[in-house]
Amino acid sequence: MTTSVTNPTPLPGYVAPEPIPAGVRDVPGLLRWETTPREEAMAVAAQMTKDSFTYDEVYGRFVTVHQYIDAPPQAVYDYLTDVRNLNEYTYSTRDFAPTDVPGVYQGRDVLLDDNTKIFMRIDGDPNALTVDMRCAWDQGEELWMNYLHRIVPAEIVLNKPGSVVIWTNCRHPYYDENPHPELATTPDRPWVGDMWPLFYAGHQAEIDNLKKILEHRHGSGAPA
Fold it and tell me: Terminal CA-to-CA distance of the chain, rounded, Å?
């Protein structure tokens, strides 16, 4: 049995752009088919590909973790945008309470001691299924730590029900130097940026917690 496939037809009047568009003609170093032969491009790709990479090569500037979750995208979005649920799936952020600044909550991050304050605001877009968590240790004026989440319907990318969650953190300069050392709970308390070499492992553990909790409540029991 064969199936017929109907492809979309380009609209009449379409004019293809120039092979090397004027807007990029003077940009040096671009790797494009029109200017780099296939063999040369493959050689460049081979040079960029190694059997192993250092942690800093992979996660020096950005840490991204991702996970398939057998739960509806809207359920994942609703869970991530509820600040109370940080108590459940994160390793160490607890007890978020509203502050006198609308949308900003104060909690504790017990990662390195029992008393470090963490301030949090969650910005969600239900149409795009994005959840951005803006937070900071010790002070709530500049929420410079950004945990960026995108929820993708798994039917689009994996052809099965559920959600794919992509979670990225960027290495803001403050990770390398505490902008307010005078606000630390003690003078010798380590700084959150000291933990950057463990960010991949820590965030992977938390997104795994997220998967376990949401699948326990919403999952169909289908293989992941």
Answer: 31
